[in-house]
Specification:
Number of strands: 21
Structural class: alpha/beta
Largest sheet: 12 strands, mixed
Shape: globular
InterPro entries: ANL_N_sf, CapK_Type1_Caps_Biosynth, CHP02304_F390_synth-rel
Number of helices: 13
CATH architecture of the largest domain: 3-Layer(aba) Sandwich
CATH topology of the largest domain: Rossmann fold
Protein name: Putative adenylate-forming enzyme
CATH superfamily of the largest domain: ANL, N-terminal domain
Number of domains: 2
Organism: Cohnella phaseoli
CATH class of the largest domain: Alpha Beta
Strand content: 25-35%
């Protein structure tokens, strides 16, 4: 228990500091030492990594072959250092999902199950000390006020976990809201709670904001935090205007607590917890795929794990002065990069052109202020479905403007303009994560 308390305090203080005011070069030298020490520990404890890295020295860790979710899940039994098998972990996690009793643990190790938007569900393991460290880091970085202040937190998620419950204390009241429950029940309950902090997917936060605007809900939180889904500019503006404040973000997945916003609302990578290498993508300035090494976790080590996300670095320093990398936005997943046919007037010689999610988003929401919500789905090569939520009397005109905007985008990218099918917006906040830009077409 003492070790857990010390871990909580250590990470809480580190979270509060956000790297301090040290220069980036000094900070990177410190990170290098932390990663090398962590890698040496993992090599001793994890049979998988020991074999995976072979004879490559720990101080040359950037030369290690990377892993991804497929590799991690295929070698789960020998990758983790707790001796827990994949079948054991899945059995515990799926039982919790079925019963909606979210206390899944094997001994002192908490078991979690990712939502699996790609159809490939992942597992994560954290021991009690790592759980205490996670709670300290989250509260240090995001809690309004100090630990001595009373704070009521409402957390909307698909599934609860011992990990999330670990933020509860005598002064912090934490209530979990199951996204499977009807929205009307959730509104009644949160109205009674009147929380200081509301955290949830932006699709759900938007529904709460709509309830506030309609007078069905009167909550006035001190902080609103977006989790689990990409925060689209359209949603950020709507939610922020409704609650009269910056919408903060947590960037977290099975692979770690990767980022969160500072008081200025800038999303920073949590480089006091993870080292992130940047694999820059062609044709998109400052945009990269992150390769994550989490040096704060030992039960399920994450070393050179290539994510499927697209992140765009900020082109200006954040006023907060933190040395942590500032992110302009999380664009989405690599799987959701649209593919278009080359129009024939490009000198690249490539048969296909890539269209990044951010390009699609900006074209649609820039077409008309009447668009309240949208989804863009690539259903075939050069075939897109555009779902729009907007007044019926503006539908025809707005659809024409979206066609024009997408045609202009394709003209700039020198690709064939897709055939567009329009339909009303259909997504309901709940179990399924909202993906504003989604590619269903597979080459």
């Amino acid at each position: 228990m003492i070790r857990n308390a010390l871990a909580f305090i250590k990470y809480y203080r580190s979270g509060k500091r956000r790297g301090g005011k040290q220069d980036r070069r000094t900070f990177e030298r410190k990170l290098e030492r932390l990663v090398v020490r962590h890698v040496s520990h993992v090599r001793e404890r994890s049979a998988f990594y020991r074999d995976w890295w072979g004879s490559i020295p720990s101080d040359q860790w950037r030369s290690f072959p990377s892993i991804d979710k497929t590799v991690m899940m295929a070698h789960f039994d020998t990758l983790n250092t707790a001796g827990i098998t994949k079948s054991q972990a899945f059995a515990v996690a799926e039982a919790a999902e079925s019963s909606r009793d979210f206390q899944p643990a094997i001994g002192r190790v908490t078991v979690g199950l990712s939502s699996g938007t790609s159809g490939n569900r992942g597992l994560f393991l954290v021991d009690a000390q790592e759980q205490a460290g996670w709670a300290g880091a989250v509260l240090g970085k995001l809690l309004p006020g100090s630990l001595l202040s009373r704070c009521s937190i409402a957390f909307f998620l698909r599934a609860n976990s011992n990990l999330y419950e670990s933020v509860r204390s005598r002064r912090l009241s934490f209530q979990f809201y199951d996204l499977l429950e009807p929205l009307s029940d959730q509104i009644e309950r949160i109205e009674r709670q009147q929380p200081d902090v509301i955290a949830g997917p932006p699709s759900l936060l938007r529904r709460l904001a709509e309830a506030v605007r309609s007078g069905k809900l009167t909550v006035k939180p001190r902080q609103v935090i977006s989790v689990a889904e990409v925060l689209d500019p359209l949603d950020r503006e709507y939610i922020g205007q409704t609650f009269g404040q910056i919408v903060h973000q947590i960037y977290q997945c099975t692979e770690g607590f990767l980022g969160c916003t500072c008081p200025h609302g800038t999303l920073h990578l949590n480089e006091d917890l993870v080292y992130i290498e940047k694999e820059y993508v062609p044709g998109k300035d400052r945009t990269f795929v992150p390769i994550v090494t989490d040096f704060s976790r030992k039960t399920q080590p994450i070393v050179r794990y290539r994510l499927n996300d697209l992140l765009t670095e900020s082109d200006r320093p954040c006023p907060c002065g933190s040395p942590f990398t500032a992110i302009e936005r999380i664009e989405g997943r690599c799987d959701d990069i649209f593919i278009a046919t080359n129009s024939g007037d490009s000198s690249s010689g490539e048969e296909f052109v890539t269209i990044y999610p951010d390009f699609v988003t900006r074209a649609i929401i820039g077409a008309s202020p009447a668009i309240a919500q949208y989804r863009a789905i690539q259903t075939g090569l050069d075939q897109w479905t555009i779902e729009l939520e907007l007044p019926d009397d503006q539908r025809s005109m707005t659809e024409d403007r979206v066609r024009t905007a997408i045609a202009a985008l394709c003209g700039r990218l020198r690709c064939r303009t897709p055939i567009l099918a329009f339909s009303p917006y259909t997504h309901e906040a709940g179990v399924a994560k909202l993906r504003r830009v989604e590619r269903r077409y597979k080459r």
